[in-house]
């Protein structure tokens, strides 16, 4: 069945390629090579929408590899709804394996996708997502081009078990490296537990950056309801792929473009959702980046809206469980409905279904209150990111939902000074320096120390690295001090439970305050007041700036690293390519022949 007979004719941009009466020579050239895999001129000249499937799966992108299979069901859906599917590859992104960091690839995949969507005869697109940065890269590109776009998540891996205990992606590494340092497990057990966390096709099964960003896409209204949390191998995943393919064809006919969906209200909804799910700190730069490409400004104060929101989802690293149970409990729609009823979301925003967010989730209830708790009986109060500033940086964030009770009792509970911690800075220049020196007894690291790492931001690394979640020296861990406060101009893994101040902007390499900080300085963190300062006199700061300058950073090793450094913003601004922001809606004019 094709649905297009009943529809009013809409002239799609692909017809400028395949039906230009003035340029028959060009039209013939555009058409002929598609014949070589069996398409017919009639299909391409039928006036039906050509729907791109932006394929992020490959052997180099194992987290998204399920999309190589799912694409078949997407194609079925597109065909059944009267569209013509065209699948094409996206630059691979594999969070854990890409050196020096996959953060470089978000903007590179973005650039590549913009060129494809702009320069080829594509009328609408299915953005296949999964691993951390594949979601923001696709969404950013969809905004720049502004053709109808829908997100299809690949879904998390099945829950992992090791010796009867749940082991979640990433989190298993951070937990067990502490146990390894304490001499409680062998290297073999460390490996076995880590490998047991990867059970099947799919992305990280914790509420790391991947699960967070796919939930964000759903909260923004960019995917069909329920899409984000379905585990990759479940039968519902293939069915979701089919439904997504069908729906995107209708979106093409309705001209339902990202610019109608990605409003400021939608992004504020996403900020609230990130807090309730205990989402990754990487959501901060990615949400800001997606918003800026959509022409929406997210101010530091907007995160305060999330800070007040309680933790509802009991998923590692902030909670106990993994992706399968989250899906069975109702997934993202159940969380959104909980937030909506508490008055925390704007339910009137439009979504890819053509309906409002409130309409999409009205029937969605948590079926497992231990997994998704009610708003008024949450797992924890105030689960969002706390934005900090002070003389060390203008902008930094802390994820309060992962700060353990033990850590709060030890550091943040001095009577009369709750939430305030003063400690002695121990400063590392990048992660090689950290690994080389962390166990050096001369550093005198004790439970009153704050570990600081610099040279790890977008310019410094380059790309900004997930290295701020530094663990204490082995000797301290053996004494039972398993976490210390950390500060850095880089990021940390979304699967980490480290109590950290992250994304310090301006970064050290750009002359930010971490550049003049020295080991031995006292730092005061006041979580309530949102302050983080080094207690160093102003004249001394000026003297250090004058005499010492900025710590050196490694040179660029590839052409892209150089181009990236020349245009990248700080993490407060999403780490976007500043020069790309002025391009928005570029598909409104088709490129010249
Ligand atoms: Fe790819 Fe976590 S490493 S999703
Ligand atoms: Mg990560």
Note down, in words, how this protein is organized:
Its EC number is 4.2.1.9. Residues 371-574 form the Dihydroxy-acid/6-phosphogluconate dehydratase C-terminal domain. This is Dihydroxy-acid dehydratase. Residues 487-507 are annotated as: Disordered. InterPro entries: Dihydro-acid_dehy_C, DiOHA_6PGluconate_deHydtase_CS, ILV_EDD_C, ILV_EDD_N, IlvD/EDD_N, Sugar_Degrad_Dehydratases. This protein is α/β, with parallel strands linked by helices. Among the domains are: 160-198, no CATH class; 386-548, Glucose Oxidase, domain 1. Helix content is 35%, strand content 12%. It contains 22 helices and 14 strands. The chain has an eight-stranded mixed beta sheet. A hairpin with a 4-residue loop joins strand 13 and strand 14 (531-534). The longest helix has 20 residues, at 235-254. The radius of gyration is 24 Å and the shape is globular. The model has no long low-confidence stretch (mean pLDDT 95). It binds FE2/S2 (inorganic) cluster and magnesium ion. Magnesium ion is lined by residues 95, 132, 209, 466, 493-494.
List keywords for this structure.
593 residues, alpha/beta, Glucose Oxidase, domain 1, 8-stranded mixed beta sheet, 4-stranded parallel beta sheet, 22 helices, 14 strands, 12% strand, binds FE2/S2 (inorganic) cluster, binds magnesium ion, iron, Sugar_Degrad_Dehydratases, branched-chain amino acid biosynthesis, ILV_EDD_N, iron-sulfur
């Amino acid at each position: 069945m094709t649905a297009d007979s009943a529809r009013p004719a809409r002239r799609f941009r692909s017809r400028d390629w395949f039906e230009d009466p003035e340029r028959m020579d060009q039209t013939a050239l555009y058409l002929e090579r598609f014949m070589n895999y069996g398409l017919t001129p009639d299909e391409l000249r039928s006036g039906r929408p050509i729907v791109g499937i932006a394929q992020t799966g490959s052997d180099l992108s194992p987290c998204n590899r399920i999309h190589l299979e799912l694409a078949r069901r997407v194609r079925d859906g597109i065909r059944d709804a009267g569209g013509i599917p065209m699948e094409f590859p996206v630059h691979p992104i594999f969070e854990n394996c890409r050196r020096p960091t996959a953060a470089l690839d978000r903007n590179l995949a973005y650039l590549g996708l913009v060129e494809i969507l702009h320069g080829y005869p594509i009328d609408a697109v299915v953005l296949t997502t999964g691993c951390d940065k594949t979601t923001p890269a696709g969404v950013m590109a969809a905004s720049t081009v502004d053709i109808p776009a829908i997100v299809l998540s690949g879904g998390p891996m099945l829950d992992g078990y090791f010796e009867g205990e749940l082991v979640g992606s990433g989190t298993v590494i951070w937990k067990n490296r502490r146990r390894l340092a304490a001499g409680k497990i062998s290297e073999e057990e460390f490996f076995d537990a880590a490998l047991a966390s990867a059970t099947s096709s799919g992305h990280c099964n914790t509420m790391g950056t991947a699960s967070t960003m796919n939930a964000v896409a759903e909260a923004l209204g960019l995917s069909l309801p329920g899409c984000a949390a379905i585990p990759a191998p479940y039968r519902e995943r293939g069915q979701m792929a089919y439904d997504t393919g069908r729906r995107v064809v209708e979106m093409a006919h309705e001209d339902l473009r990202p610019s109608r969906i990605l409003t400021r209200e939608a992004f504020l909804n996403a900020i609230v959702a990130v807090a309730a799910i205990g989402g990754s700190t990487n959501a901060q730069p990615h949400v800001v980046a997606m918003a800026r490409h959509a022409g929406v400004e997210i101010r530091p104060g907007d995160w305060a809206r999330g800070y007040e929101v309680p933790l509802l989802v009991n998923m590692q690293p902030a909670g106990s469980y993994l992706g399968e149970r989250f899906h069975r409990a109702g997934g993202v729609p159940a969380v959104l409905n909980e937030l909506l009823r508490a008055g925390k979301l704007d339910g009137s925003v439009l979504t890819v279904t053509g309906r409002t967010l409130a309409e999409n989730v009205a029937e969605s209830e948590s079926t497992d209150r231990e997994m998704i708790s009610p708003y008024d009986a949450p797992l924890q109060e105030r689960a969002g990111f706390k934005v900090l500033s002070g003389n060390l940086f203008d902008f930094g964030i802390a994820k309060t939902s992962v700060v353990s009770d033990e850590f709060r009792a030890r550091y943040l509970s001095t009577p009369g000074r709750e939430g305030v911690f003063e400690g002695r800075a121990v400063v590392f220049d990048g992660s090689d320096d950290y690994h080389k020196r962390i166990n050096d007894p001369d550093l005198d690291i004790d439970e009153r120390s704050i570990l600081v790492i610099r040279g790890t931001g977008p310019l410094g690394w380059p790309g900004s690295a997930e290295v701020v979640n530094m663990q204490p020296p082995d000797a301290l861990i053996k004494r039972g001090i398993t976490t210390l406060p950390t500060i850095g101009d880089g990021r940390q893994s979304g699967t980490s439970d480290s109590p950290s101040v992250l994304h310090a902007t301006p970064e050290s390499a750009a002359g930010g305050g971490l550049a003049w900080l020295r080991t031995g300085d006292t730092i005061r963190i006041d979580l309530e007041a949102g302050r983080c300062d080094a207690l160093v006199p102003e004249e001394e700061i000026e003297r250090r700036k004058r005499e010492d300058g900025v710590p050196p950073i490694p040179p660029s090793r590839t052409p892209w690293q150089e181009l990236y450094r020349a245009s990248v913003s700080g993490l407060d601004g999403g780490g976007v390519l500043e020069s790309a922001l002025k391009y928005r809606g570029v598909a409104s004019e088709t490129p010249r022949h």
